[in-house]
């Protein structure tokens, strides 16, 4: 990827708002608040494999999401469209880029990349996999074809890698998942060869952070688990963004992030 064409911060900010990756996003307020309540009662689907040391009431989670992602802080705002602050997105991209650069600078870094959003963020993870290989990292690929019973009717899903990015498939399609079990199994298979860094989202990121692996991740405004994990020190960086817009819309963000990483090498 030609980082000479990376957008400036202001150019990226405008593009994030225009494509609704940040700014006035498509996620509804009702959906956000429902997920915050679900996390507050420790629904495993929203915990992404993380445990929560603090009390983390519904109001606490809303306040954290206002601070970390830029959702509307007013608890009386209960319907309509919510927001993600594009400046918080870009600040987190900078922090993520610095973490990735620090790992790659160590030499022969072991990196594990995974996504539960193959219809959206896959392009970002693929770009980061290419970047890591370019700078001498080893991309770990444990557990390929290992199967899990998840989803309706006990349907089997398997770990599949596309250019060293882990996802789940159901035999005919790549699938959206919050499930932490695949990452838990992958880390168990690696044994003592733990990654130096995991780049992921959803349960892939949560399970890695819970296992004590340095983890950076992406999360939507309706996915508060990784933000709680970051607040408790288990996730190094969580980037707030809409995680399922058209894949091509992430390209300027990818170029910006890669430029940030390469400036730190």
From TrEMBL:
<dbReference type="Pfam" id="PF15698">
    <property type="entry name" value="Phosphatase"/>
</dbReference>
<dbReference type="InterPro" id="IPR031423">
    <property type="entry name" value="Phosphatase_SCO2771"/>
</dbReference>
<protein>
    <submittedName>
        <fullName>Phosphatase</fullName>
    </submittedName>
</protein>
